[in-house]
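Sample A.
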Amino acid sequence: QGQEKLSCNPRKENGSHVVLCELGNPMGGGTQITVDMELSVAGLEDADGAITFHLQLRSKNSPSIVAVTVTVPVEVQAEMELRGKSLPATTVLPAGWQEARGSRRLEDHGVRVEHVYQLHNKGPATVTNVTLRLGVPRELHGRTLLYLLELGTEGSVTCAEPPDLNAMQV
């Protein structure tokens, strides 16, 4: 009939996190109650798609225990944003410019353009083991468009170098 807040106490028992709630004392025989619980659980990034709760109902007056297992699906959500810029932002080559094939001088292969990318987690959850695959157009109509000279990272990021990185050893 009425709503009451439960008094619950968290504790650890045999390596598990246990929450003990007192539902009422004394409670008459045949009493029916409904309990809605809201739990806040940290570290769900590694929950493998679900988290399982083992619920037990027991009376101090009876040795019997009613046990129920509840599995709740977990979906971790995080919004990722890729930011990028090129330095210089615009590059123009003369109309008759030709690449000097076989040359090892950088200026004979065009203007140096640096592309900087930043992957940003907008949350709400943290993320680990993120893979970003970035495709770069290297040729256009059989002619070199971008020559990949080097690849650098900052922080705890690792990158797999493309097999043709600085293929002409410029």
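Sample B.
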Amino acid sequence: TEVTEKLEEAVTIWIKQIRQILVESEQMRREADDLGPSAELEYWKARMSTFNSLLDEIKSSRVKKIISILQAARSKTLKQWKELDGNVTVAANEAKDNVRYLYALDKFFCPLAKASPITMMEHVPSLMNTIYMIYCTSPYYNTSERMTSLLLKITNQMINTCKTYLCEG
């Protein structure tokens, strides 16, 4: 029972740490007003990296051994652990899925940033079709909040490109 208590203490600390990561990941993002769409991709890549690392740690043999010992001891901390394990898995899957879909838009980011306003407009129909495809097929990216954030960044990029064009022209 002494060993079980020590292991439960360790798992309780892990639970607090993982909860903190999950809470921070769900907080509102504070971003500059003029960020372009590549910032959205970078955000999700960083989030994917964080949650994949966390998943790797959760699935490590050391953690699995501790959890199996606590299962044998019928520890009450396992209910919280399993819930958090599921939440981390969902967050990792969301980030991975969003990165995959945003990579489909990546080919438009350079033309949006480097083109003239006239040539930029040539890319808008296919860009919007790709965004529509993401909205229709992504299980995570099809929310009003996610789409608004993405469209805002695309609009910011278009405005910045037009500003640059006007200042240089």
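B remarks: Residues 77-114 form the longest helix (38 residues). The two ends are 77 Å apart (CA to CA).
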